[in-house]
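Troubleshooting: if your tokenizer reports a length mismatch, compare your output against this known-good record of 476 residues.
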Amino acid sequence: MKIPISVAEGDGIGPEIMRATLHVLREAGAPLEIHNVEIGEKVYLKGIATGMDPKMWDIIRHTKAFLKAPITTPQGGGFKSLNVTIRTTLGLYANVRPCVSYFPFVDTKHPEMDVVIVRENEEDLYAGIEYRQTPDVCSSLKIISRAGSEKIIRYAFEYARRRGRKKVTCFTKDNIMKFSDGLFHKVFDEIAQSYPDILNEHWIVDIGAAKLADTPEVFDVIVMPNLYGDILSDVAAQIAGSVGLAGSANIGETGSMFEAIHGSAPRRAGQNVANPSGLLLAAVQMLDHVGQPELASKIHNSWLCTLEEGIHTYDIYKEGVSKKKVGTQEFAEAVVKNLNKIPQTLKSAVYQGTVPSLAHKHVHTNPSRHLTGVDVFIYFRGRVEEFFSKISHINVGALHLKMISNRGVKVWPQGHPETYCIEQWRCRFLSDNGKTVSQNDLIQILHAFDHVSMDVIKSEFLYTFDGKPGYSSAEG
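Known-good structure output:
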């Protein structure tokens, strides 16, 4: 029986590399039933802001996997990334990106590199929840949940165990973002205890990124929140040899999507020069996922043989290493000719079936939660002294003004004259001794700002959890 898959040819170089990829799959005997899906720039420009006709969801939902070429999101407001929409809508929480060196056939400074980046795929800043709050101030909401962290971290450890990997490393910035990244790190430490056979470690993301760029061979599997994972998987792919060689899998409990990690490169479209390798290796991951590990190994090994023969597209071609510069379709033909061959220098690929998405059973925590205050954000152009004089009298019941900050820096009380202030101000009102207040008390605070004609941008309620503040300190 044939395996039904959805296929989107995408924009820019997408149709060319998809054509090359499907040619290899067909010649290798992949038992696929293809269902075409139209998405991307043409759909956006028809006035469909999501970039995909709603009817396409059912096609994707009723096939075993979705193989997608890169798409172009039109410039300007009102167009959300379709990649993000597909991942979040279908619950594809795990993004898996192998970044491997193919030295000496592809130039790299890191010949021993073999890193897999497992990236959280549904939340973090990548959720795209943004606001323009004043003429000159915008904000983005960073969301990290326990449930989201548990799913991706457990998947990373399962991947390591089933693939014979020895270590899982976590990257966060929890020395600064103590609540959001702090939660991700905490969950990592908790889940690591269930995998005593796998080494685990944590790095602050900045020094971790530096180490990844300098000495990637010390890493094995790296798990990260969404935005760090997106950036550093591209960095890892590039230092391994080329972003054009990397494919990725997006895995959920009920669906999957496979794609190259690079973009649609419209300036290269229609020239038969694009490297189809990223999409082809994504298709290899797809075959493994849908129960065709032997076929996945066969195609991957023929691709490795093609690299060994020095048959390269322009992006990885190098005099003295490469033997022949070829176009997109010629590269695909070379891979087809090498079907059933095994690489002689590079490590041969052996797939043994996909790492399944574990049914996630999140257990909610139940700390004692009390409302004790509110942060009110105000749009005001002027000096801190002027601002304070207008609001200093605002107090409601048990709530008192404790702090004014600007861009996270306290400017009252005991501010410093050197601090540069923008037009967004945060006013913190807290009850004395952590006394619980009502939402009506907070509404009265907002009424008080309205009474003095202050422009309220937003408010953020402040809670304690088991007596500990669930918000950053007054100093930051």
